[in-house]
Amino acid sequence: MSDPRRERRKVLVIEDEQDIRELLKVTLEGEGLQVLLAGDGELGLALARRERPALVILDLMLPGIGGLEVCRRIRSEESMARVPILILSARSGEPDKVVGLELGADDYVTKPFSPREVVARVRALLRRAWGDPGEAPSEHYERGNIKIDFDAYEVLISGQRMEFSLREFELLKFFVTHPNRVYERGQLLELVWGPDTFVEPRTVDVHVRRLRRRIEKDDANPELIVTVRGVGYMFDERKLDAS
Ligand code: CA
Q1: What is the whole-number distance in angstroms between the Cα of residue 100 and the centre of ligand 1?
Q2: Distance from the CA of 66 to the center of ligand 1, in angstroms?
Q3: Which segments within the chain are labelled E, that is strand?
Q4: Which tens digit of pLDDT belongs to each residue from 81-98?
Q5: Which numeric CATH code is attached to 165-241?
């Protein structure tokens, strides 16, 4: 028997544009999801049958079998009928999106989308379809001397309340919810600032420095937000247990 919790983290992306496929893969994997990619409807349907994903992200404009037909076939097969489908549609006025919903798709996102918007929709659909598997991000974070209330935007370091700008808070939140993994500056910009941002990669460095001043014991020798030379940054959560 496979682990149902693992199964519930499997997302199939059917999209012919490679850039969008890759963006979705990086984004969703950053959320702890397992991502399968298909560049056309034929392969998408084959993967949907074989891999039993927990959710399908489906582009409507596909070569060969179109997205609407893929949607119809998924809904008509008993083994896949329950899987939530999130449609990617090119324009907000596109009538196909409505047809897709009528064919049984559950939600849609209009291109160009922000990764965070997709993540929010994906999480909502997974919860609605399969219940809360326990991977949903906690509203609180508490480890070592760091305590964060995500709803109240409150951060306590060793019991001391610290002020953060909204972006600093979001970067800190990203780090603590994606620990022990190296992210490039470009990835952090995309995932924390959003895809349409015009800020430069060194903005990330500035924000990291500000975070370090508040959360590191010695910000000249950071142990929590570590610089990985030539790559980017990593939040080393293990250091919190040692402190
Ligand atoms: Ca397309």
Answers
A1: 15
A2: 9
A3: 10-14, 34-38, 55-59, 85-89, 107-110, 140-143, 146-149, 154-157, 160-162, 182-184, 225-228, 232-235
A4: 889 999 998 866 667 777
A5: 1.10.10.10
